[in-house]
Write the structure tokens for this entry.
Amino acid sequence: MRILRKTTQGIFLLLFIFLFIQTESTGVDELGYPVKFFLDFDPLILITTFLASHSLEKGFYLSLSVILMTLIFGRIFCGWVCPFGTIHNMVGALKRHKGAEAQRGAGSLFRVKYFVLLFLLGSSLFTLQLAGVMDPIALLIRSFSISIYPAFNYMTRAFFDTVYEMDPKGLVDLSETAYTGLKGSVLAFKQPYFKQAGFIGLIFIIIIALNLYQKRFWCRNLCPLGALLGLLSKYSILKREVSEGCNECGVCSKVCQSDARPNEKGHWVSTECLYCWDCDDVCPQKAVSFGFNNNAGQGTPDLGRRRVLTSIGAGVVAVPLLRTTPLSASDILSPELIRPPGALAEKKFLERCIKCGECMKVCITNGLQPTFLEAGLEGIWSPILIPQTGYCEYRCTLCGQVCPTGAIKKLPLEEKVNIKIGLANINKSRCLPYAHATQCIVCEEVCPTPKKAIWFEYVKVNSRELGEFHIQQPKVDLKLCIGCGICEKMCPVVGTPAITVTSTGESRSDNNQMIL
């Protein structure tokens, strides 16, 4: 069973990596199978999204199969399927851990995950969606998208660049072949860069490194999805049984991946068991078995009524604390907060967005970046378009295709090209034709709308060298500009561009308009 479990874990981890790499533009505006497939099977996201937004995406109904599977077989998703759990297993194997008794040095820390779960459920009940910050699948996708994968791309390219510079005989042709193969399969089309890549990567590394302190530390103590599945597994049909042949040698406790107390007769904790079957494999007396028997003795964690109520209450209190900010006091959003096309109205958007980072991973121009405080603490790590980094490609709808919760709607191209995400504004003190009587038509040339949203007015200007002459000065058509940001990205003025885009005029808001 151990060999079978490790094989299954490896298959699902490779599937996750494959789908993650496939979540990228292939030159056409259509994706095959994005990595949101794993989020569709995530019951924590299903429940919190339903509580927060009172609606569900069709894909999330797949998570009902995980709930059913848990009610039958226990927490096998954690022990056999979860790619994040597999990574924890791999890192934990780097250090030889002591037995389960010594591993309980963290005391009652395993209860923390249940309090985190109750906090998330309490906050989502009052429309505050924070589950994606702690959900293991969303956390893994976000960490890979914003930090790990960009770092991998950078290191790979740097390695081959070093080989080219050294120019060792016989290696250049070989490395060129290898590099071409990687570019066509694993590497991104161009090197991605993200704000907070170091911060998000550091969080991921710390979580992974905790396995060197305690095996599967995250899964044991912090994972809210594991807590949810643990509560469900209490009612599972498949149970662990110990026969009278057990001599309490304690071998099972040494291989236990969680704090399920397999060596204590009658006190096995089904909510903590990952159903890895390692205890069955190593038992020298063959006294351990798993079967469909509801009479097996089991223990359950004592959370305490006061702590349960406190956790739920903390989630409820978090709602006004996070929303009583200057940003929440007005319907007019921060001008820098430019959301992707298809994003719901801000309140509805935050109720659904789980900050998984898939939209940023798939953005062709790398323009979608994670927010920090631009949308308040509630919106941390949600997507924001930064035109100076990358514009919104006119004929691209990929971000809506990968969004798992519908925070960004999947739009047909003919509808997307008419969605306004902002409005371009010209700074006449920096624009060359206005401030320096120098001809420049870049913003008009790159404007993608069929009828140009940037047009020219011929005016008479004065120049010290040329005297009076006519020049074209750009103007923005409020009705035609969609705020894609390509004019800001391509503006030749160094430093602060002469034309910038703000969220004013966005289609999703009736109030955030220049002319009401």
About this structure: The two ends are 66 Å apart (CA to CA). The mean pLDDT is 88.
